[in-house]
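User: I would dearly like some help making sense of a protein record. I have put the entry right below:
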Amino acid sequence: MTSDVNITSALKASQTTSAASTQLASDFTSFLTLLTTQLQNQDPLSPMDSTEFTSQLVAFAGVEQQINMSNKLDSLVSLGVGDSFSAALNYVGLDINYLSSDMNYDGSTPVTINYSVDGTATETKIHIYDQSGDLIFTHQVTSDDGTAKEFVWDGTLSNGKTADAGTYTVRVSALDSEGNGLDSSTVVSGHVKGLETQNGATYLLVGDRAVSLGNVINVNESKTVVSSTTSDESTSS
C-alpha cells in the first residue's frame, strides 16, 4: 500500500525521524554512563566480558545508521515537495486553461470555454449556472461535428444584464440524431491569483476555486481539449 507524498506527510516523517534521533542519543548516553560505572566498579581479578557490551555498541551503531538514512530520505522528500511548490508558484499571475466545469468570472474578463462532444450532435446547448444552481444563460450551437469547439462567455445573462463576479458552472448538453445524450468534456480559462494547500497538496487559486495542478492543460494558450467523460444526464439540471 502506498500513500501520496505531500507537505503534511513530509513534516510528520521529519518529526518522527528527529524524535527517534533524540531518543537514540538519550539511550546511548545512558548506556555509556552505565557501562562506565560498571567498568569502574569491576573486580580486577574477574574483569567483565566485553562480548555483551560490544554487541550493544554494534546495535546502537546499526540504529544510528538507519536514522541517518531516514534523515537523508526526509531531506530528499522535502526537496521534492519544495520543488513542487516552486513549480506551482510559477503559475501565479498567469492565465491558464484547466479541465473543469467550474469557472471564475471576475465581472469583466470574458471566460474562454473549450468543449468537445463524443460523437456527432444534431443539437448542442451550452448552459451556465450560478452558485445556487440556477440557469442564467443558454447558448444554442448551430452545428457540432464532434471536434473541439470554443465558446467565449462575456458574462451576459439571458435577461441581457451582466453577471456579477463569482464562480459559475458550465454544462454542455448534446443530443444525437436519435435524441440520445452524448458525453462531453470542458476546459475553462482563468487567472491564477495565488496558491493554497489542502491536506498537504498544492492547488492554484482561480477566483475562489482551488485548481489541481494535474488539471492544468496549458498556460496562455487555448483550443486544447482533453477528454473528461461525463454523461449528458449528469450535466443537466
Observations:
- The chain has two domains: 7-89, 95-235.
- Residues 1-11, 221-237 have pLDDT under 50 and may be disordered.
- The first helix runs from residue 7 to 40.
